[in-house]
Design brief:
- The complex is a heterodimer.
- By secondary structure, chain A is α/β, with parallel strands linked by helices.
- Chain A folds into 3 domains: 138 residues, Rossmann fold, CATH 3.40.50.1980; 114 residues, Nitrogenase molybdenum iron protein domain (Rossmann fold), CATH 3.40.50.1980; 143 residues, 3-Layer(aba) Sandwich (Rossmann fold).
- Chain A is 39% helix and 16% strand.
- Chain A is built from 14 helices and 13 strands.
- In chain A, helix 8 links the parallel strand 7 and strand 8.
- The mean pLDDT of chain A is 94.
- Chain B is of the alpha/beta class.
- Chain B has 5 domains: 262 residues, P-loop containing nucleotide triphosphate hydrolases (Rossmann fold), CATH 3.40.50.300; 104 residues, TATA-Binding Protein; 114 residues, Rossmann fold, CATH 3.40.50.1980; 102 residues, no CATH class; 153 residues, Rossmann fold, CATH 3.40.50.
- Chain B has an 8-stranded mixed beta sheet with strand order 3-4-2-5-1-6-7-8, with helices on both faces.
- Classes of the chains: A alpha/beta, B alpha/beta.
- Chains A and B meet through helix 1, helix 2, helix 3, helix 4 and helix 5 of A and helix 4, helix 15, helix 16, helix 18 and helix 19 of B.
Chain lengths: 428, 826
């Protein structure tokens, strides 16, 4: 079967609809009506419970937030939209949801289903929007972005007075309602406060859809990389200033991010002393780890946006990223950010071979990776720190940020422990 | 100037492309900036505008779509007009409709119309709209005005009538019918076209005469209206153009029924529609309809309404389901059909009986009947009812009972799902090709201990496809738009090479390829011939399910493999070979070794392992492997599950009996173990455990969850909480429970019954001694809310020592009050 696997490999990538599920999971009163057979719902198991202990996407009482219309490929019915329209109508008027999304499996899209039209035809109840059915062409990060864009388009179309120094973050990957993301958002809110800004809301940030309306009065829309389309759409609709950024990660990276947001909000001058002190204090903590980390090689496996964040932190810690396996379609990366070995959606066997082929002094000792990369042997013999989606052997019952100053310190601590565990393992 | 967006439809060969391209040319000549979109695989729409064939768009929406699209938008030879063709696959391959949809979605996603300042977009769509793809210009954000090009020929008007209906379907997107453009030979034809327009409630926008300048212009590949501006055609075309631009939405037209269309052609008056029965729009209305019909709805089963019909001498159970293919015993009524419920004693009743039963509902639609089960507020009930029966509707359809929480919505969720091996064997000379896309690749619930659909507790979800025998072909846009033949052939070749000569390839077409209906059969035949394999073609990603034919094919493959293995290995050198068996722990294998039983080690090769022993031990029967073992003369056994002292004794007894040996002392519990069991049982007597089950499932409960017997044996009280699934079913449930308790032997057994969620909540909350409730759902909130501790089969260990350890674990759980203290009442 090896030859078969070489020709039709198992690839390190995730499907479009999983991204849509992630977006719906992040909004506790959102519902996804999936046009198609419910075999597609099995993907929710990769997320609900296994990755997100607090997910409400699936319900023991059958009150799932992702449901299927059960429309099959054959025979094509008299009017296949009837069933879909009834489902959307029922969802919108149920009173359970703040927003309803609809997406179709590829075969129904091929059959010409008009999801946008069907969604718009629903009157009464909560808003219903279509997520373009692009499973055949795009990946999970696109699915996430497009689902957020659909949700943003469901916000009331009105220009509200802007609240000065108010900032909305759009395109955060809230892939689970656990301590890591809760702590990230708390840290960002705290730091923005110290920077003289007010965080209006985070889309998505685990809050109900109604709370998204706070973004309408934000002076600045910060476009995070997981929701560029959504952010652009929101800014165009509200007239807010749009600022495209990466993730607020690392010490210097977080400071630069905060300064960029301040400038976009019209604040002048350097960061306030309190933030400078925060950065220095965090650096003091991080410095404890440097002697064990500096000079080592790191592998990253996960999504490309997190890669850029981790690569920045790695540079700060004196680590060199020698290999990166990215679980998405190919995307442009900033100049100079590519690792010696960098592969998008690699076949898992080929990636492992490529990793083994790295020179003796490039083989990574440490890895920041998601669970699939670990399980599929993409980390070689490195000592792993599990981060990103999916994360099946690392759950956060308490605050464990990885963004902001606090996140840099926490991640440096995890890397330190991984480095020490590797040494202990060698001694054993 | 507001942007015009006009789509021209009409029967093939009626002159639609001529009208559309001249329309674009006149707009361009008037100073407009026009994007002319050809939506016909023939790719001739833009011929007159570009003066040449232009390459069709060959892409799909998605990343970098705008850049790719711009490469296909060609400047026309006519001023102000740019052209793009949707193109299509070679005739008979791929999906042309999908290609049109892909082009238009790309245009929309890229925002080309706005960015490039087009003042008009004109869509020329293939004559006969055959699928949703050809209606793509009517989706939101594209055409608003529809012009139907027709002649006075009967078939052309028939097509126009259907297009009127289609336009109405898309009215929600702001689409409206501007009117008809009529190509006709004479005044009589024009008259008929006007009469048709009046009949459907639209207008004639223009009459285009026959004109020799038109074929001449087409021969020269220029628009006739510009080639011969003084011609009658050019004048008529200019008038049509003005009329289209001036048209505003009016009263929506209404397509004629087929009967009325026939009457129209025959010059007769329309047939008056039959008076429709009063619609039922409320739950109360539906309830009243059922009451009048003497039917009592009792629930929904897989999208079907189940109701009881009270007649003299008893009650009969009826199923009402959405209309489907005709079948014996099924009576088609309205958009639904009725039949006698399979569980009903009246299964022999004829269609007349059913007809009598449902006569009172005959005027109602299925959706109206469903109102009884809740209006839109009961969203999940509605979703559950929409599911087509028997089509993955839920996992209850398995003959062995449900294996995992179902994916359907709003149905009563069970607590107990039978676990264990699924009896599926994939031998090394079987290659499974799943011909599907990236979504299909992840279509199997992969579970894990924290997952919802958890089908396995001992591993975490994996990256699909996990089995080395199974691969995804990676069907994508390219195959959908241009044909899948190449991918099918490559997949079959790779699979055939992997299976090897004499091997078996199973090729599963999933929904996308099924919809496109490509010719996989001939590719399969070629692969069989070239590589000496057998190829089975199947639908859906169902390699984990057996049909009789599939099981037979796999059995035949494995029988041959076993024969080869036997030839290679000679006589069996071991006593036992465990295959797919998860219950064999140290304690059990130690007892076997102590008794001198030789167990074949795994890892010697699939067939070699199976033929290496005198007896193959399986955890569950396998519909393919078992017949193969029989055919190859290899003895096999599925022993009772070795849980509890009783179960373990039975397990050893079955194995040694099959080996023709007396059960040795090492296979019996030691006196110290017996003593410990009694001590633990004394402690367990203080507690009880609840098992929530459906009344129809009581009978098989002890087989589905072997720990039931073990818990009784360990001294725990058992409390059966029975969901009464049908009225009047209590007597049968009481009987079944008594039989079950009888089979379990001595112990403390109690039964309580419930019909609603609220009743269940009450039962779960009491008594205090019931500390544990069985549930296969992770952290079942129903159990936690009652302040009880959930437990499941994963807690139990096989063998005598395992039984003692299981009892200790259960006692610890009983003493553990976390749920009661912190979670109860949540």
């Amino acid at each position: 079967m090896k030859e078969l696997r070489a020709k039709f490999p198992k690839t390190y990538t995730l499907p479009y609809q999983l991204g849509v599920y992630l977006a719906v999971n992040a909004v506790p009163d959102a519902c996804l009506v999936l046009d198609g057979l419910n075999c597609s719902l099995a993907k929710a198991d990769l997320l609900a419970g296994s990755h997100d202990l607090n997910s409400t996407l699936l319900s023991p009482l059958g009150l799932h937030r992702v449901v299927a219309t059960m429309s099959g490929p054959l025979p094509q019915q008299d009017n296949p939209e009837k069933k879909l329209a009834a489902s959307l109508e029922a969802a919108a008027r149920s009173g359970r949801y703040g927003a309803v999304l609809v997406n179709g499996l590829p075969y129904l899209n091929l059959a010409g289903m008009d999801y946008d039209g069907a969604a718009s035809a629903v009157t009464g109840g909560c808003p219903v929007r279509a997520v373009p059915a692009l499973s055949l062409d795009e990946d999970w990060l696109d699915g996430y972005d497009r689902a957020l864009e659909a949700l943003v388009s469901a916000l009331p179309a009105r220009r509200t007075p802007k609240k000065k120094l108010s900032v909305a973050l759009v395109g955060y990957l809230y892939d689970r309602d656990e301590g890591d993301h809760r702590a990230n958002l708390a840290e960002i809110k705290r730091l923005l406060g110290l920077a003289g800004l007010e965080l209006a809301c985070v889309l998505p940030g685990g809050t109900p859809f109604k709370t998204w309306e706070k973004a309408l009065s934000a002076q600045v829309i910060v476009s995070l990389p997981y929701g560029r389309r959504a952010a652009a759409r929101l800014a165009a609709a509200t007239g807010a200033k749009l600022l495209e950024t990466g993730l607020p990660s690392g010490l210097a990276g977080t400071s630069a991010w905060l300064q960029a947001v301040r400038v976009a909000a019209g604040l002048k001058g350097p960061l306030p002393p309190a933030l400078v002190a925060e950065e220095r204090a965090a650096a003091q903590s991080v410095s404890q780890a440097l002697s064990a980390l500096a000079g080592q090689d790191l592998l990253f496996a996960g999504d490309p946006h997190l890669y850029l964040a981790v690569a920045g932190i790695a540079r700060e810690l004196g680590l060199r990223v020698t290999a990166a396996f990215l679980n998405s379609r190919s995307r442009p990366l900033p100049r100079g950010s590519a690792a010696e070995l960098l592969l998008f959606s690699p076949p898992v066997e080929a990636a492992a071979v490529a990793l083994a082929g790295l020179g003796e002094y490039s083989r990574p000792a440490l890895a920041v990776c998601d669970y699939f990369a670990r399980a599929e042997g993409l980390c070689g013999s490195s000592s792993p720190v599990e981060l990103g989606f999916p994360s099946y052997t690392r759950h956060c019952l308490q605050p464990e940020p990885f963004l902001g100053y606090a996140g840099s310190t926490a991640l440096a601590g995890r890397l330190l422990n991984a480095a020490l565990a590797r040494r202990a393992g060698r001694q054993a | 100037m507001s942007r015009e967006s006009v789509v021209f439809f009409g029967k093939g060969g009626i002159g639609k492309s001529t009208v559309a391209s001249n329309f674009s040319a006149l707009l361009g000549a008037a100073g407009g900036r026009v994007l002319h979109v050809g939506c016909d695989p023939k790719m001739d729409s833009t011929l007159a505008l570009a003066g040449r064939h232009i390459p069709p768009f060959s892409g799909s929406p998605g990343p970098d779509a705008e850049t790719r699209l711009r490469g296909f938008i060609q400047p026309g030879a006519v001023k102000g007009v740019s052209c793009v063709e949707a193109g299509g696959p070679q005739a008979g391959l791929g999906c042309a409709g999908a290609g049109i949809g892909a082009l238009l979605e790309t245009v929309k996603a890229a925002g080309i119309l706005e960015k490039d300042g087009y003042t008009a977009s004109v869509f020329d769509v293939l004559g006969d709209v055959v699928c949703g793809g050809f209606a793509a210009p009517l989706r939101r954000g594209f055409a608003k005005k529809v012009v139907i090009v027709t002649s006075a020929e009967a078939l052309s008007l028939y097509s126009a009538n259907r297009l009127v209906a289609m336009t109405q379907n898309f009215a929600r997107n702001g689409v409206w019918l501007a009117g008809l453009a009529v190509n006709c030979r004479d005044d009589g034809g024009a008259e008929l076209a006007r009469a048709f327009a009046a009949a459907v409630g639209t207008r004639v926008l223009g009459i285009l005469p026959r004109d020799p300048s038109v074929p001449e212009a087409e021969r020269r590949r220029v628009p006739a209206a510009l080639y011969a501006p003084a011609s009658p055609f050019a004048a008529a075309m200019a008038g049509l153009c003005r009329a289209v631009l001036a048209a505003t939405p009016g009263k929506p037209p209404k397509a004629l029924s087929d009967a009325d269309f026939g009457a129209f052609l025959a010059g007769r008056a329309p047939i008056a529609p039959p008076s429709a029965p009063a619609a039922v729009a409320t739950r109360a209305g539906a309830a009243e309809a059922f009451r009048r019909a003497r039917l009592r709805p009792v629930g929904l089963e897989g999208g079907q309404i189940v109701c009881d019909w009270s007649v003299a001498g008893g009650t009969r159970r009826i199923v009402i389901a959405p209309a489907g293919p005709a079948a014996a015993g099924r009576l088609q009524i309205s958009d639904w059909a009725a039949c006698i419920h399979p569980s009903s004693d009246e299964s022999a009743a004829g269609s007349e009986t059913i007809k009598d039963a449902v006569a009172g509902l005959a005027g109602l639609k299925f959706s109206e009947l469903l109102e009884y089960f809740g209006g839109p507020a009961d969203f999940h009930g509605r979703m559950g009812s929409l599911a087509a029966p028997g089509n993955f509707a839920d996992s209850r359809n398995s003959s062995a009972g449900p294996r995992r929480p179902h994916m359907g919505a709003g149905l009563w969720q069970r607590f107990i799902f039978p676990r264990g091996a699924d009896g599926l064997t994939l031998p090394p000379d079987l290659a499974v090709a799943e011909h599907g896309d990236g979504e299909c690749r992840f279509c199997e619930a992969s579970g894990g201990p924290l997952g919802f659909f958890s089908s396995r507790e001992d591993s975490l979800p994996g990256l699909a496809k996990e089995s080395p025998n199974v691969f995804s072909t990676g069907f994508g846009s390219r195959e959908a738009l241009s044909g899948e033949g190449g991918l099918v052939r490559r997949s079959l070749e790779a699979a055939a090479r992997a299976a090897g000569p004499g091997g078996l390839v199973e090729f599963y077409s999933t929904c996308g390829p099924m919809l496109l209906a490509g010719d996989t059969a001939s590719a399969a035949a070629e692969a069989e011939k070239e590589f000496g394999v057998k190829v089975r073609l199947e639908n859906y990603n169902s390699y984990g399910e057996y049909s009789a034919a599939k099981a037979a094919a796999r059995a035949s493959l494995m029988a041959a493999g076993l024969a080869r293995g036997r030839k290679k290995c000679g006589r069996p050198s071991f006593d036992l070979a465990f295959h797919g068996y998860s219950h064999l722990n140290e304690s059990l294998s130690g007892a076997l070794t102590a008794a001198g039983v030789k167990v074949s080690p795994a890892g010697t090769g699939f067939y070699e392992h199976l033929v290496s022993a005198r007896l193959v031990v399986l955890q569950a029967p396998d519909a393919a492997l078992c017949p193969a073992l029989d055919k190859a003369g290899v003895k096999w056994l599925v022993p009772p599950a070795p849980f509890g002292f009783g179960g373990t004794k039975s397990w050893f007894k079955a194995l040694f009996k099959a080996l023709g040996r007396v059960v040795p002392p090492s296979a019996r519990p030691r006196s110290a173990q017996v003593k410990q069991r009694l001590e633990l049982a004394a402690q367990a007597g203080r507690f009880s455990a609840g098992f929530v089950t459906g009344s129809s499932e009581i009978e098989g409960l002890s087989e589905h969850i072997p720990c039931l017997r073990q818990m009784a044996e360990a001294g725990f009280g058992l409390r059966l909480l029975v969901h009464l699934e049908k009225p009047g079913g209590k007597a049968a449930a009481v009987k079944a429970a008594a039989l079950l308790f009888g089979r379990l032997g001595a112990g403390s057994f109690k039964t309580a019954y419930f019909s609603t969620q609220e009743e269940l909540e009450e039962l779960l909350a009491t008594p205090a001694a019931m500390r544990l409730v069985y549930s296969d759902i992770r952290r079942d909130p129903r159990v936690l809310a009652a302040g009880k501790t959930p437990f499941s089969a994963r807690l139990f260990e096989p063998g005598y020592d395992g039984a003692l350890e299981s009892a200790r674990r259960l006692l610890r759980l009983c003493d553990w009050d976390f749920s009661r203290r912190y979670l109860g009442g949540a």
